[in-house]
Recover the amino acids of this structure.
């Protein structure tokens, strides 16, 4: 009999976690398992990309006018109540694929026979957004995590941040890097861009992510203002959508940043990223930074602020240009690399050498070992310099 596995995620929004989740589910050997995918909220642009041979359910429907009521209910409710409301069947393995609300629900599972796995995609010590889900109580959140058999992190630095926040009295923490379907990224990057023209005779900077404070885009636009005052000739494309758009538009208008283009969410971001001469990550906090890995797969050099995830992917400056996580350091770094053609070429070659690190078949096989009957926990720390 196939092992029954439940994956719980918040929604199918346009973020990196949702993209990784789709790639994992769509490339698992589904013949081995009876898989059910469940979302807390029944919405998101990536929902249509989910393979059709898995069962799909949602806890709450996407009903206009009362969605906010559901959100407030989830924030304030005990995990056991949410579990009883949403999960009616028995599963052999129950997986909370994102920290926060999904962790609260699976951590309150009433099934004593299921194996429970939590996924953590961010350095919670640097950005503890989940505290609001657990009534601002770190101890309460820790107690929920104590209910899991295994806690999986997408980077060593995310794991270290977890220990810093919750303590070192866990013996089930391990790292599983995100799978990235490189062939798919490359194939999609070859499509024609016909809705915007690549600038001529100037460097094109690209960045991609949700328009939220975590991504540091407000600081990036402040940096762009300084670069413009220095008369540097470049253009910046920002791919993504989110609640911070009005603030970014306000800054563009304030500083007359005519060389900054907010392109919004794109179904295929890779064809736009491929046009770039340099990929910029201005994030305050990350877990893995899927977009950096995808940019490197496409051969772009990378400049990134030093934060969890990017520093590990770039092996702390070996494969990309790393700067301190401040506005001034990002300004100085961008100014330096835009004025130094040889440095740009150097990091292009470094990106090319890093591609083998993102072998998705190895990553998915590694993750699938978690689901085997004879799985035994091993405290793994990946060597990022491979």
């Amino acid at each position: 009999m196939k092992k029954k596995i439940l994956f719980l995620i918040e929604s199918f929004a346009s973020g990196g976690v949702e993209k990784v989740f789709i790639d994992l589910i769509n490339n698992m050997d589904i013949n081995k398992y009876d898989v059910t995918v469940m979302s807390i909220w029944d919405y998101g642009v990536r929902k249509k990309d989910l393979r059709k041979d898995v069962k799909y359910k949602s806890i709450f429907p996407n009903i206009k006018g009362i969605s906010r009521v559901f959100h407030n209910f989830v924030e304030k409710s005990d995990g056991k109540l949410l579990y009883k409301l949403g999960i009616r069947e028995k599963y052999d393995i129950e997986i909370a694929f994102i920290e926060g609300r999904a962790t609260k629900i699976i951590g309150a599972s009433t099934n004593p026979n299921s194996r429970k796995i939590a996924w953590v995609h961010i350095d919670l010590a640097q950005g503890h957004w989940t505290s609001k889900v657990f009534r601002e109580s770190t101890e309460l959140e820790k107690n929920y995590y104590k209910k899991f058999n295994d806690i999986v992190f997408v980077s060593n630095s995310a794991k270290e941040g977890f220990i810093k926040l919750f303590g070192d009295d866990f013996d089930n923490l391990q790292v599983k890097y995100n799978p990235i379907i490189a062939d798919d990224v490359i194939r999609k990057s070859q499509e024609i861009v016909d809705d915007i023209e690549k600038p001529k005779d100037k460097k094109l900077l690209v960045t991609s992510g949700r328009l939220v404070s975590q991504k540091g885009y407000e600081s990036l636009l402040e940096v762009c203002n300084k670069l413009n005052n220095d008369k540097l000739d470049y253009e910046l494309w920002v791919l993504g959508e989110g609640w911070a758009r009005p603030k970014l538009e306000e800054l563009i208008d304030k500083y007359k940043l005519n060389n900054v283009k907010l392109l919004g969410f794109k179904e295929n971001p890779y064809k736009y990223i491929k046009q770039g001469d340099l990929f910029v990550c201005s994030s305050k906090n990350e877990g893995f930074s899927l977009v950096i890995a995808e940019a490197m797969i496409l051969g772009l050099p990378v400049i990134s602020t030093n934060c969890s995830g990017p520093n590990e992917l770039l092996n702390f400056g070996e494969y990309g240009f790393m700067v301190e996580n401040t506005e001034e350091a990002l300004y100085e770094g961008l100014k330096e690399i835009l004025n130094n053609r040889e440095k740009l070429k150097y990091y292009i070659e470094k990106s090319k050498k890093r591609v083998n690190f993102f072998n998705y078949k190895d990553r998915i096989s590694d993750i699938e070992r978690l689901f085997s009957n004879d799985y035994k926990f091993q405290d793994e720390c990946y060597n990022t310099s491979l």
